[in-house]
Design a protein that fits this description.
With 253 residues, this protein is an alpha/beta fold. It has one domain: Rossmann fold, CATH 3.40.50. The protein is 42% helix and 15% strand. A seven-stranded parallel beta sheet has the order 3-2-1-4-5-6-7, sandwiched between helices. Helix 2 links the parallel strand 2 and strand 3. The chain is globular and about 50 Å long. The model has no long low-confidence stretch (mean pLDDT 98). Bound molecules: NADP nicotinamide-adenine-dinucleotide phosphate (NAP).
Length: 253
């Protein structure tokens, strides 16, 4: 039956940036669909764990700093140690740095690109090697942005990184589809999380943004749940290299 295709029972998911915001919502959604979730974060995921366990879900915390590729092997090892295999990777962890382009330093640039782009590639590569060795395919979902499509203002490194992730989603999908690995993306619109605190505190920018969203509200982590389950499940087996906007209509304007 069609709804069975969305079920994630017996699946194991790794989600980065699992302690808060969109990553926390993604973990809860995957667990509600039946997956066992390994949440990667640089600080405690106690709140995410409690939300999942309240519904009898399974969650394992993996503490790692994703500002470099060095913890990647350990993340894979800990996930396999917890649940024996990996079926889904959601590359969600990311940072934004707001500064006039004219003043961005090389250090700021590298900080954003390393987490948002470089680690996304090498973690995907490491997980894809596991998928290929396991022989059952797998799902990779990359969290992109409106700035995968648009230029933005005062966030040049973020725009570069999120535009790269959209391209990477296509590139990896092409190479790995033959292994039954689906690589797709989700481009959230303007969501009320830590990432947008500064924007939402700027009354003028906040009003301009809200006025342009056809749905008339900022998004929430709950708004991503349907898209994440779709792209992590068998329901999307013939969807490759596509990035789905969940944006209240922002890109349609
Ligand atoms: P958030 O609340 O700031 O979450 C970002 C997550 O990434 C947090 O869990 C954060 O951990 C983690 N992270 C950052 N640096 C890390 C590091 N070095 N090592 C490990 N984890 C690290 O913002 P969010 O909105 O939920 O963002 C999630 C993703 O959605 C990001 O990729 C973001 O770019 C993207 N996105 C957000 C929006 C939006 O409007 N909010 C729109 C489009 C795309 P800490 O809590 O420890 O910092």
């Amino acid at each position: 039956m069609i709804l069975d295709l969305f079920k994630l029972e017996n699946k194991v998911a790794i989600v980065t940036g699992a302690n808060t915001g969109l990553g926390q919502g993604i973990c809860v959604a995957l667990a509600q669909a039946g997956a066992k979730v390994c949440g990667v974060a640089r600080r405690s995921c106690a709140e995410t764990k409690a939300l999942i366990e309240a519904n009898n879900g399974e969650f394992t915390e993996i503490i790692a700093d994703l500002s470099s590729t060095s913890p990647i092997n350990e993340i894979i090892a800990q996930a396999k140690n917890a649940y024996g295999k990996i079926d889904i990777l959601v590359n969600n962890a990311g940072i934004i740095s707001r500064e006039d382009a004219i003043n961005v330093t090389e250090e700021d640039w590298d900080r954003v690109i390393d987490i948002n782009e470089k680690v996304v590639f090498f973690l995907s590569q490491a997980v894809a090697k596991e998928f290929i060795a396991q022989g059952n395919g797998g799902k990779i979902v990359n969290i992109c942005s409106m700035l995968s499509y648009q230029g933005g203002i005062r966030v040049p490194a973020y725009t570069a990184s999120k535009s790269a992730v959209l391209g990477l989603t296509r590139a990896l999908a092409n190479e790995w589809a033959a292994h039954n690995i689906n690589v797709n993306g989700i481009a959230p619109g303007y969501m009320a999380t830590n990432n947008t605190t500064q924007l939402r505190q700027d009354n003028q920018r906040s009003e301009q943004i809200l006025e342009r969203i056809p749905a008339g509200r900022w998004g929430t982590p709950d708004d991503l749940m349907g898209a994440v389950i779709y792209l992590s499940s068998e329901a999307s087996n013939y969807v490759n290299g596509f990035t789905l906007a969940v944006d209240g209509g922002w890109l349609a304007r």
